[in-house]
Amino acid sequence: DLQLEEYVDLYWRDYPSLISCFTESCIIDQAVIGQMQRPSFLSSAPPCVFNWLSSCLRGEERPPFPYLPGICHRTELLVLSYALYIIGDERATSTNVSKYLFRLSAGHKSCANEPNFRRQSSVKVRFSSEILAELLVDWLSSQGFTLKDLESVPFGVALPIREAIYKCREQPSSNWPEEVCLLIGRQDLTKQAHKMTLAKSKASVGSGFSLVPPSSTEADEEEDGMSDIIHEVTGLIWNQDLRVQEVRRLLQSSRPVRVSVVQLPEVSDHEYIEEKENKLLQLCQRTMALPVGRGLFTLFSYHPVPTEPLPVPKLNLTGRAPPRNTMVDLNSGNIDVPPNMTNWPSFHNGVAAGLKITPASQVDSAWIAYNKPKSPELANEYAGFLMALGLNGHLTKLATLNIHDYLTKGHEMTSIGLLLGVSSAKLGTMDMSITRLLSIHIPALLPPTSTELDVPHNVQVAAVIGIGLVYQGTGHRHNAEVLLSEIGRPPGPEMEYCTDRESYSLAAGLALGMVCLGHGSNLIGMTDLNVPEQLYQYMVGGHRRAQAGANRERHKSPSYQIKEGDTINVDVTCPGATLALAMIYLKTNNRSIADWLKPPDTWFLLDFIKPEFLLLRTLARCIIMWDEILPNTEWVKSNIPQIMRGNFDPSEDINMDTMAQAQDYITAGACMALGLRFAGSANSDAFDCLYEFARTFMKMMSFAGTAAVGAMGYYNLQTCLSMILLAMSMVMAGTGNLKVLQLCRFFHKRTGGEMNYGFHMAHHMALGLLFLGGGRYTVSSSNSAIAALLCALYPHFPAHSTDNRYHLQALRHLAVLAAEPRLLVPVDVDSLKPCYALLEVTYKATKWYNQTTVELMAPTLLPELHLLKQVKVKGPRYWELTLDLSKETQHLKSILIRDGVLYVKLRAGQLPYKDDPQGWKSLLATTANHRNSGVTAFRPEAISTFTSEPALISFAEFFCKTSEGLKSREDSLVLFSAMLYECVTQECPEMLPTYIAIEQAVGALRQGDLQQTFPLWQLRLVVELWDSRMLRGPANKHDTLLTSEFLPVMKNAVDVALDNWLKDHSSVLRSYMRSEVLSGDARAVMLAGFLVYRSIPCFKNPNTHLEGCSSFADLLSRSSHLGIPLRDMLRLVPILLSSASGSQSLLYPLQAFSS
């Protein structure tokens, strides 16, 4: 009626069986039609989205496609997807939408019948197909487009989107949101993204998968306190031996020790009992030192139940004597036992139990109070428990009222644990409430008119360290000034500050170093304090400066016990001042300050310095000159002064004891600096260097009674060896190195003699660091971590369990502040079990080495993240995943903090490394996993090797296996098997419906059973996408998801079927071109299919007539103007040029092109 012939033709092509003819009479008068005003969106050429998408694939210019907002949403998505991915316009979905879509709205005024489309000619940056694929997938997910939506899109239209999804699946970004991961079908990334989303939201603890140890009975938990180590992970890390069980055996303190004493004939029974109890007392020195190491070993491994108290293992100080296994106890009264011997070990036991709690646990003030023991004997354990809660960040949840209650009880241990705990929890925050809390316990921070409080000395030491922790790295002037003066605090007034002065001065020095940590010479506002000069004076001695300000009156009254005069007592002030200088100038490479710390270069001056101070000076000098530390023996020996390395003049009066001790302590200090420099790096050169020195000291100790040991002294040798052992443990922290474990076990077995409580503590701290957090943690080398390690590993260990003279024992636990989670644990997303996966770790280039790449087998400890450029899960067994650290490290940090779980997905036909370490079992599947091979050898029964999806297994069962009823369709079985093989081996099972749809469309066309032209539209889009890839070059043929064998075969089958139909029914095509009436039979359906597939335009428009062309050149010119592809145009030549000579002359080029 409206004489819109092209619209009628379009509808007939879509539904040829419904629309039978074109020549029905017009009911509306022509004059009325002329007076009708057409809407603006009604163009003369009917809009066809398939035609528009086809033009995109062929690279042709097209006007914007009209759409109705809110109604044609799917059309809008598809058009913009093609514009973005096929055309390559990265702004198609943002600023250039109007170039591809024409918005239809009511009342729109028409300026012309055709939309004004003018292609902008500008220089464009061609994005790679991978970047365009990422942009497309990201945009589709932001529009709420899902895989379910994609299944409803016709297979030909959806193929480019599936191609983009497959590319993103191969090379995904690790920090994509959950919606994108769902769209690309990466379950591992989806699980990871879901876990991150829960963590960022107000989600409950324990949502998603986490590495939780298997449930154990209450008896097991009370047994040794180490049952929470995740054996699934440790079994993968150390799969060749039982070293974790050995560590548990060494660190357990809940069972009686074995007391083996042989009764000699001349020894009476009473004396024999005393011998056994003396032996037990020696063994108890070791047992009491175990909790410090156990706290490091079980660090952050326990998720407490809010309704149950925290299980604390017993500190069993009894023994069993063979052969009758009789009980040996220290409470019998036969021998003298030191008073309060178990106070500090109980405190350490409480800390070790509390450190098990993970930082992400559900801990509140009520639960903390709920764990308070009713028995006063357990108060020390609870004090340690409070400190541990501060170290893992939970003490901030303790109510202020509860803190007040604990402090007013006046229990010394509780005050120490609470003050250090809250300070650690508020590290570097300058929190005023905590500052007020600490200041009450430090007389120097109180006004001179304040009431004097009777604060125990150890509590003051803890409060001073607390100030350093709360103000770490802030450079706070007032606190720095007070702490500087407290390093040299004189004894007095009267009876005060007369005992254990060394620990207070050391604490003030450590706290000052933490306040000004790493500031170097940039101490803003402290120029008048002359901090470096004052510290140097504390270090070398000199005349004491007068007390300034409020402290002047306080120290007017002299001490009644100690007379020091006006000179500085360097035995008290030197350690704190030395470490304060080291921490202030940490990593600054300030040579002038470092030269202050050089050991003396004359024998005379060397006699005036304690060997221990030489260790501290060497350590301080080396960590100031951080960049000069080298992991070799030559560098360590270079720290020894020249006078000790050369030949000695016999005429000189040289004290060999002094030289031997100085040389060994300097060596130990350099080794300690080496351990700090390479802490947590597992650097093989550093370890080999330290191990060589450890063996040297071991050989010296093995010659007991010789001149070397006599000159050096057992205590000094053991001190140096312990520091080297700790340095090795820092370097290999978390790795469980077997050589260090053997050394720790060797020292564990040595008891009695001069092997005192402090040495046992050092050795078991080394063991705890070696297996830090059960292998999940290692040590950082950041400034804050170095400060914590200097506090915790101070090279003077207590002589007995009540010794706090030189160093407060509670500070040993500050090593936890240096712990850093760096264990990456691959977890199979299907089985949710930890597994092995190959990682490719790329280091950034530094001044020491170029950019380099190493391969690691995870689970593994990663290097420090600031050193890395990229971490990649490498194939071929698992889907690749890249964590790009050059952009940002927060994503990987969040993974490591949350158990280090990285979800991975096993590829088709591959076996896990645990089941197939060498890849031999997967070799057949891997060989057949390449295209163009293995299809013929594929057996449907082997489908379970490649996939576990029920739909694919059922397809193989019913469509790929030969049966009695399907023997006649052997070709179809082979084809279906090839389709299934391709889909499962290339990890794209979603392509199987596309393969089947193509095969069904081609089969219907072959049999002449075509019911509609829709399948041919989709085939045309598939072929045009393939052709567009081939135009870019043969290398791009693998960009398509369809195999290089399948599509050409199908395309050839369509061409043969249509050519045969054209040969037999050319008259039908001529009738259509002459606008004659067509019958509604099967010939019309095939004609419509032919026109659609061959891209032939509507001939109702006079401008589209092709008949009457006088030459082949004229025909080609007109056909190119109409957008008919050359390949399809050549097939029409015999019909369009009706003369026999013309047809004969064009037969050769047609055959040549077709071949």
From TrEMBL:
Domain Anaphase-promoting complex subunit 1 C-terminal: from-to ranges: 941-1097
Biological process per Gene Ontology, one example term: protein K11-linked ubiquitination
Pathway in which this enzyme or protein is active: Protein modification; protein ubiquitination
Pfam family of the protein (one): APC1_3rd
Residue ranges constituting the Anaphase-promoting complex subunit 1 middle domain according to the UniProt record: 1-191
Gene Ontology CC annotations of this record: anaphase-promoting complex
Domain Anaphase-promoting complex subunit 1 beta-sandwich: 822-907
Gene Ontology MF term list: molecular adaptor activity
Keywords on record: Cell cycle, Cell division, Mitosis, Phosphoprotein, Repeat, Ubl conjugation pathway
Function recorded in the entry: Component of the anaphase promoting complex/cyclosome (APC/C), a cell cycle-regulated E3 ubiquitin ligase that controls progression through mitosis and the G1 phase of the cell cycle. The APC/C complex acts by mediating ubiquitination and subsequent degradation of target proteins: it mainly mediates the formation of 'Lys-11'-linked polyubiquitin chains and, to a lower extent, the formation of 'Lys-48'- and 'Lys-63'-linked polyubiquitin chains. The APC/C complex catalyzes assembly of branched 'Lys-11'-/'Lys-48'-linked branched ubiquitin chains on target proteins.
Family: Belongs to the APC1 family.
Quaternary structure annotation from Swiss-Prot or TrEMBL: The mammalian APC/C is composed at least of 14 distinct subunits ANAPC1, ANAPC2, CDC27/APC3, ANAPC4, ANAPC5, CDC16/APC6, ANAPC7, CDC23/APC8, ANAPC10, ANAPC11, CDC26/APC12, ANAPC13, ANAPC15 and ANAPC16 that assemble into a complex of at least 19 chains with a combined molecular mass of around 1.2 MDa; APC/C interacts with FZR1 and FBXO5.
Name of the protein in question: Anaphase-promoting complex subunit 1
Organism: Crenichthys baileyi
Gene: ANAPC1
